[in-house]
Design a protein that fits this description.
By secondary structure, this protein is mainly α. The protein is built from nine helices and four strands. The strands form two sheets. Strands 1-2 form a two-stranded antiparallel sheet. The protein has a two-stranded antiparallel ribbon with strand order 3-4.
């Protein structure tokens, strides 16, 4: 669920003053950089497993940098190097077609090392260690899907379309409709209308893409709606973390979006749910589409 830009409107008073609308640069930077990021993501997916693994590694390491800076309250934490090395090696293991167990063992070992390293200097050890789990596991699962699932490129593109539709639908509907706040204590800009709009947009995007390839539209809508709800939950979780550490954005790397974590919060949660659908639900991730 994306963050709605701030719009300030001065309604006319009884003296009939004209409406004043304050321009927000996010109206330009957000769609422009969002389109660029989407193009890079799609290119990495279509280029193959190794390209997508490299993309996931770079993105994941950038997110880890922000996480450790948040936990360290703005300072540099040496645990970042441990987390980054662990993520890189674990992703490379999956891309090289090694057993997935190897990657999980690497992730577990790295998490323990991060925990001990931070504990030695009494620096929020659990929070530092959790960052590797929070960011690393979704990255591993997405690379695993790209390397192992039939028609993996189509499956991942469909997944990202659902997430992007959720973010866009929540942003547009939330701005146009407004209404009661979803969780005012966590994120005062999020509304129930935006959350519902995000789920509806995800369902529409999922159904159209599957219908085009003559797949099971009803099943695609059900899965997309569930993924969208999980994506909203992921967004709220990151909002809670930022509240916990008294920051507004995780960083400023992406104009109009904030930090990498601000852009990935929905994806991190939903990718785990997508992997569960593929691996445990028995549902074909192509939904019977003729590919």
């Amino acid at each position: 669920m994306s963050k709605a830009p701030d719009v300030v409107v001065n309604l006319p008073s009884r003296s009939h003053k004209p409406i004043q609308l304050r321009f927000n640069p996010d109206w330009v930077t957000r769609p422009v950089f969002g389109t660029v990021l989407a193009a890079v993501t799609l290119s990495a997916i279509l280029a193959g497993t190794y390209s997508f693994t490299a993309f996931a590694a770079v993105t994941g390491i950038a997110a880890l940098r922000e996480w450790h800076r948040i936990v360290e309250t703005g300072g540099f934490a040496r645990e970042f190097w441990i987390s980054s090395a662990t993520l890189f090696v674990a992703l490379a293991a999956i891309a090289s077609r090694l057993d997935l167990v190897v990657s999980w063992l690497l992730m577990f070992a790295g998490t323990v090392v991060v925990l001990l390293s931070a504990a030695m200097r009494n620096a929020r050890a659990v929070w530092h260690a959790f960052g590797l789990i929070y960011i690393g596991i979704p990255a591993l699962l997405l690379v695993y899907l790209r390397a192992s699932v039939p028609h993996a490129a189509w499956v991942l593109i469909w997944f990202f379309l659902v997430i992007w539709a959720t973010d866009t639908g929540a942003l547009i509907v939330g701005n146009l409709v407004g209404g009661p706040k979803l969780t005012p204590t966590l994120s005062p800009n999020k509304t129930w209308s935006g959350a519902i709009g995000g789920v509806l947009a995800a369902s529409i995007a999922a159904s159209l893409s599957v219908a085009f390839f003559r797949g099971d539209v009803r099943l695609a809508i059900i899965v997309a709606a569930a993924l969208s709800i999980v994506a909203h939950a992921g967004d709220l979780f990151e909002s809670w973390v930022k509240r916990r550490f008294h920051i507004k954005d995780s960083g400023g790397l992406i104009p109009g979006h904030g930090g990498v974590l601000d852009r990935l919060d929905s994806t991190l949660a939903a990718s785990t749910a997508m992997a569960a659908v593929v691996c445990f639900s028995g549902i074909a991730p192509t939904f019977g589409a003729h590919l």
